[in-house]
Amino acid sequence: MTSSSVTARRNHGGFGTGLFRTLGGNALELVTEVGAAGLLLWRSSLALRKFGRSVPLVVEQMRRIGVDSLPLVIITAVFTGAVTAVQAAYQLKEFVPKIYLGVAIYKSVTIELGPVLTALVVGGRVSASIAAELGTMRVTEQIDAMDAMAIDPVRYLVMPRIVAALIMLPIVTIFADVLAISGGFVVANLSLDVSVKTFVEGMKLYFFPHDVLGGLLKAFVFGGIIAVMGCTAGLRTFGGAVGVGRAATRAVVASCVLILISDYVLATLLFKVIFGEA
Question: How many distinct structural domains can be found in the chain?
């Protein structure tokens, strides 16, 4: 066996070992992150006993999480509705009447696209912001100083962000749903020659309140995931400025992955077990 073939075998083995080591390390890190997030969520629920003191902090976080995210949500929602209308019209063409276009857009948006896309867009912005903010406080020892002064960082920093996200994600999702359905109607009316009466009558045919409720319950859970994962990554930051960047990346990745996983679990639970629609 030549020396070049031996070197090639060693390089191949090193690549395979490194790949599995990297995948295993990432999986272990994700499990560790989720476990730490569970503990942080429990501590935050205990801090609710002093919620009255934290109302101004919650209101401020509601503005930062919800109101400041509206420009991005508006753009996402309008074009989501427009694309949904075009795709639904293309798939339903020559198979079903145009009256069903409205219900197709309504159900797609309220059950799935509205909550999930809003959560992914807001989560990418908010979870990174929370992780960077708390991570900077961690590496500059501001959180250690709070502990030294007997100020609970969970009550002061974590709990207001979680409560604000739980409140604002369903509200922002309602706003996104309305905009997406409106965007879908505009495209259907201008490009597909669907009248207002036809679109609205189609929506009325199969309107069920639990469709909207299910989407809002999803948004509620997604809001908790975004805030908890951002806070967890931020509080576990180390390594200076580089560590802050890694924490922001971890928060976004963990939030997006858990949103998609929980979306499947919630869809199965809500629309197959509870509502019995699937």
Answer: 1
